[in-house]
């Protein structure tokens, strides 16, 4: 698990135990020096020549060792070991305070290492050891009664209670910083995920547009080049006309691809002689049918009801109109690929209030034989995605006569999401 910066700084080092030992021994030595220099101070503590002083120095050293060895991985054991040094050094008398410095550091580290609630027993035991040691030292100095008890309790409160409060405050602030860091990381991951989703959607949209544009024009080009192969020897003039139509289809495809690229750019691009960039609408379906007819396909267009008025009124939004246009374009391309030579009809029906229906239906292939097995394409997938994005309903499948039909039902005046259903094998 990766540690946060706050957690990294919580790792204890050997510097603090060493500092604690230097300060404790230094204060003990300074107390002896002050006591010997001023006999009137009446301090009760052992001198340098007493065994008690050297015993106290050993206790201080053992406290520092316990801090260095256990406070990192076993903070409870470190606290209890350090606190046990207080009653062991009761011979210090008035210099008992030097033993409490290590207790305060051990308490602070133990509380930071884990919640204080789990340390209740350890903290109480440490406080009892401190109180007992101080009380013993106070009694050794000649005090009696409540003075001994109060002195022990006050020293225990200072040595354990104050570090407990300080560590709790510091730990709470560190937890808050960690929580903010985790929240920021979560928000960063969420932003990355949203960006990734947006990128994937844009990629899908671009792939769909490229497929619809290329498939439509290339299908027409494939049909016309097949006719050229048969005409070039028997009807040279007809082959020349077909070549001109191929050139027109290629130019139209390049223009549509250019329009798509310009729409995807973030900056304005000057209009070139090829004409302004435009969004395809329902009005362009007539041009689709006319282009297919010019390519030699048997395609008809039927308009029922006020289709033009519905499109002009804004009842069908620009995205929905583009979806209808692309569905017709893809359906005509599929018909040219899978049922070459079969009659195909396009019907725009706005008779039903609140709905515009787009129907593309082709009859069985000429001669009763469809194309051989082929890999499934992405045409119907693109149709489905466009229908879902605009709240339209898409249905497709074979007809009773053996042909194929695609029906797109577009809501007029507002989206009314509906299911996308397949009535047969997709293509």
UniProtKB/TrEMBL annotation:
Residue span(s) of domain Signal transduction histidine kinase subgroup 3 dimerisation and phosphoacceptor: 202-267
The reaction(s) this protein catalyses: ATP + protein L-histidine = ADP + protein N-phospho-L-histidine
EC id: 2.7.13.3
Swiss-Prot/TrEMBL keywords: ATP-binding, Kinase, Membrane, Nucleotide-binding, Phosphoprotein, Transferase, Transmembrane, Transmembrane helix, Two-component regulatory system
Domain of life: Bacteria
SUPFAM superfamilies for the chain: ATPase domain of HSP90 chaperone/DNA topoisomerase II/histidine kinase
One Pfam short name: HisKA_3
Matches recorded under InterPro entries: HATPase_C_sf (IPR036890), Sensor_HK_TwoCompSys (IPR050482), Sig_transdc_His_kin_sub3_dim/P (IPR011712)
Residues that span the membrane, as ranges: 12-32, 52-70, 77-107, 119-139, 146-166
Protein name stated in the entry: histidine kinase
Organism this protein belongs to: Cellulomonas wangleii
Source taxonomy: Bacteria, Bacillati, Actinomycetota, Actinomycetes, Micrococcales
């Amino acid at each position: 698990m990766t540690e946060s910066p706050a957690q990294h700084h919580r790792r204890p080092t050997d510097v603090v135990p060493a500092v604690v030992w230097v300060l404790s021994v230094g204060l003990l030595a300074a107390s002896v020096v002050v006591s010997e220099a001023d006999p009137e101070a009446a301090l009760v503590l052992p001198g340098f020549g007493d065994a008690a002083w050297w015993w106290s120095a050993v206790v201080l050293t053992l406290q520092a060792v316990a801090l260095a060895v256990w406070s990192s991985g076993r903070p409870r054991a470190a606290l209890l070991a350090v606190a046990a040094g207080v009653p062991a050094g009761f011979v210090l008398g008035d210099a008992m305070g030097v033993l409490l410095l290590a207790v305060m550091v051990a308490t602070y580290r133990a509380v930071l290492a884990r919640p204080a609630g789990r340390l209740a027993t350890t903290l109480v035991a440490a406080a009892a050891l401190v109180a007992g040691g101080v009380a013993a030292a106070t009694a050794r100095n000649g005090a009696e009664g409540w003075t001994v008890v109060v002195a022990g309790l006050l020293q225990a409160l200072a040595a354990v209670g104050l570090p407990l409060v300080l560590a709790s405050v510091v730990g709470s602030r560190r937890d808050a910083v960690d929580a903010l860091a985790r929240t920021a990381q979560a928000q960063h991951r969420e932003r990355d995920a949203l960006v990734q989703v947006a990128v994937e959607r844009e990629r899908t949209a671009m792939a769909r547009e490229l497929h619809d544009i290329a498939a439509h024009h290339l299908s027409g080009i494939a049909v016309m080049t097949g006719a050229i192969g048969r005409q070039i020897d028997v009807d040279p003039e007809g082959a020349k006309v077909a070549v001109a139509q191929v050139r027109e289809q290629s130019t139209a495809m390049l223009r549509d691809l250019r329009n798509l690229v310009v729409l995807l750019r973030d900056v304005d691009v000057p209009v070139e002689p090829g004409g302004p960039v435009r969004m395809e609408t329902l009005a362009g379906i007539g041009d689709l049918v006319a282009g297919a007819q010019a390519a030699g396909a048997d395609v008809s267009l039927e308009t029922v009801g006020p289709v033009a008025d519905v499109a002009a009124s804004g009842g069908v939004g620009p995205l929905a109109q583009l979806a209808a246009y692309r569905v017709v374009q893809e359906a005509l391309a599929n018909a040219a690929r899978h049922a070459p030579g079969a009659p195909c009809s396009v019907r725009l029906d706005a008779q039903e209030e609140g709905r515009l229906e787009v129907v593309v239906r082709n009859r069985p292939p000429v001669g009763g034989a469809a194309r051989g097995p082929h890999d499934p394409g992405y045409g119907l997938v693109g149709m489905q995605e466009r229908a879902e994005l605009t709240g339209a309903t898409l249905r497709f499948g074979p007809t009773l006569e053996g042909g194929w039909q695609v029906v797109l039902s577009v809501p007029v005046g507002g989206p009314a999401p509906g299911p996308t259903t397949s009535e047969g094998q997709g293509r």
